[in-house]
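Crash report, auto-generated. Payload:
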Amino acid sequence: MKNKKFLIVSLILAAVCIVGVLYVNANMRYSMLASVLQKGAIYALVAVALNLLNGFTGLFSLGQAGFMMLGAYTYAILTIPVAERIAVYQYFDGGIIQFCLPMAVGLVLAGIVPMLFAWLIGKPVLKLKSDYLAIATLGFAEIMRAIIQWKNLGPLTNSSNLLKRFANYENILFPMVVSAVCIAIIVLMINSTYGRAFKAIRDDEIAAEAMGINLAKHKMIAFMTSAFFAGIGGALLAMFQSSVQAAAFTSAMTYEILLIVVIGGIGSVTGSVMGAFLFVACSEWWLRFLDDPLPYLGVQIPFMRGGFRMLVFSVVIMVVVLFFRKGIMGDKELPDLWKKRPKKALKKASKKEVA
Amino acid sequence: MLKIKDLHVSYGGIRALRGVDLEVPDGKIVTLIGANGAGKSTLLRTISGLVKADSGSITYNDNELLGKPINKVLEEGIAQVPEGRRVFADLTVLENLKVGAYLRKDKAEIEKDIQWVYSLFPRLEERHWQLAGTLSGGEQQMLAVGRALMSRPKVLMMDEPSLGLAPLVVQGIFDIIRTINQQGVTVLLIEQNANMALKIADLAYVLETGVITKTGTGAELLADESIKEAYLGKKKK
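Recovered output after restart:
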């Protein structure tokens, strides 16, 4: 019965969200709100994918921007219409790829290519522990960025020039729906036997091994899944920006995503999602007025000039981290907050028995 | 019957086991006692497949276990309770039990076994929703035992279940070991608490620096003068 109630409430919420987004799409397609919604949804997906690794499997990876970049490039390269290629690859005679795939195929491939790369580098790298794994994955991301910008790969990747004019979405509902579906898949995975095995590995590798859990296999599954969804997130980001350039996928982007995961709560999917929207809204929208040197009520406030926003933002983050040691959600999920603790339920039951 | 023959194991460059022969008959409680560093845990880890052996053989009902990966050993019916409990601290008690049944696919039977574990440890049922890390030491040991039982083992190997627990709690754990054994599970118990371990043992071995030096029934070894001196704290005269 309770489940039914929960289902109805969440369906109503989803419907309200969809109607709201459609309204935004129709009336303020190019407003700040619309772009925060889109970028927030994309970052939410990438953050949840990173959380699957960092929060649920205990693998500290910093390669997220690298996988996003691979996804973004795969998608962009494969979906530029043939007629446009000569203009996009202007320094490379139209490039070597002379076909164009449909959007959906490109999006799936944007997940599969990073996943294959994850498999390749996962073989040696996943044997490393904690900080060493972080360094190795960070190195991988940086190397991939350099390789994509390599001049000799120009006919394929357009070197360090922009890739643009690839297939794009019209309705801002699209990235939100795609990332919602992807996050739902990750949640299903976390709640399956696989998810339990991941958490067991995170808590105690030796005990997990003693239970018959194959460590190498499960770490690889988590790593590849994370790379898959990071790649799809990267493709969505490419569409959102309607252009791709390798230079944008720096390690700073990975840190942004890591920050979202930490602020949202390591090991909480809803935390990552909320963290993503809050982070994007704060960094791009709500604090924007701080960059504005205009006088308020006739008073010129000192420090209010371009860049001041980021300074305030850093202070906000420090305050959040100080007061929410385990992030906004800790390792709880949003629905958990409404759940009654079973202990109380038990007590009630026993009281009834006594009576 | 679990049979170990002439087992040699090197562990971290040290020859930890040097020709161990040991038998664990079905339905019995077998105890292995020995000082720190005698190789007790290495033996257990070798049986479960976590450590590779140099030579020798480990057979269960005439199936060779040596060289098999740990999941195959588990499927043969040999489970272990690792030293120091090692429960999954951020998983609930129920989730811990479910991880214990990781290799099994039969959902209905798993549900039955969860109820069985709850009947052995009613405390775990009371706390099934709690995170394992918030349990007391004794409760964590119960959970570790329950988790190992979830693979429905024929042989349960326990590595120092009394480690770091109050005497009263240790008594409770040993009572449970006896109950589990009476329900048909063979137990291989590794202990430093020799007094308690020998009391419940049908068969006991003493391991010293990688070699079995004495065997006998629990009662025999309890009465043995040299054992009393070395492990039971009798004063030298």
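Post-recovery validation: The two ends of chain B are 41 Å apart (CA to CA).
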